[in-house]
Amino acid sequence: MEEERESLKPIEGASRSARSRLPLKGELLLAVAPTLTVLIVFGLVEVLSRQRLLFASLASSAFLIYLDPQHGTNSIRTLAFSQVMAASIGLVMYLLLGPGYASGGLAMVVTIVLMIVFDVVHPPAVATSISFAFRAGNESNLLLFVMALSIIVLLVLLQRGLMWLLTRLQKKR
User: Fold this and answer.
1) Domain membership of residue 112 as a residue range
2) Of the four listed, 52, 144, 156, 172, which is most buried by Cβ atoms within 10 Å?
3) Is 108 inside any structural domain?
């Protein structure tokens, strides 16, 4: 069955090795933390704000962390820098241009360029910039987003620790 699971393998010709697959129980255990984290973030958002769509990209970030916690795209520096930068860019575009395609498109382009320039490419941040450009409403949402992002950063640490532990336990068998 291990040979059939190819979702974590690099594409043919890539020079990167695949993340070690765990037994099904281990993979499901790794998926529990991102799922619970996203549900906690949703609960936090529901209590403090009605801007639910501003946080959808964090769910994608959480799943990428499950998929490959040790990939550079999921490092704390890349995750935090790109998401905060994208939210800020989206908010600025919203304040300058109002909600709409112009602010969303410009926020997306600026975010992509700056992620490349600063070497902090985290694809869900593109959605963050667009969400803030379309729906930013007020600056307090940026603070709430940073609080939710902090929870996702903790997920990175948790996933790395859990993966280390599961790998060690698997080796002892």
Assistant:
1) 72-173
2) 156
3) yes
| Residue 144 resides in a domain | yes
Q: What is the pLDDT of residues 133-170, one digit of tens each?
A: 887 555 567 677 777 777 777 777 777 787 777 777 76
The answer as to whether 134 is a domain residue is yes
Predicted TM-score (pTM) of the model is 0.72
Domain count, the chain: 1
- The answer to whether residue 9 is domain-embedded is no
Q: In sequence order, what DSSP letters do the residues of the chain get, joined into one string?
A: -GGG--TTSPPTT-SSPPPPPPPHHHHHHHHHHHHHHHHHHHHHHHHH-S-GGGGHHHHHHHHHHHH-TTSGGGSHHHHHHHHHHHHHHHHHHHHHH-SSHHHHHHHHHHHHHHHHHTT---THHHHHHHHHHHH--STHHHHHHHHHHHHHHHHHHHHHHHHHHHHHHHHH-
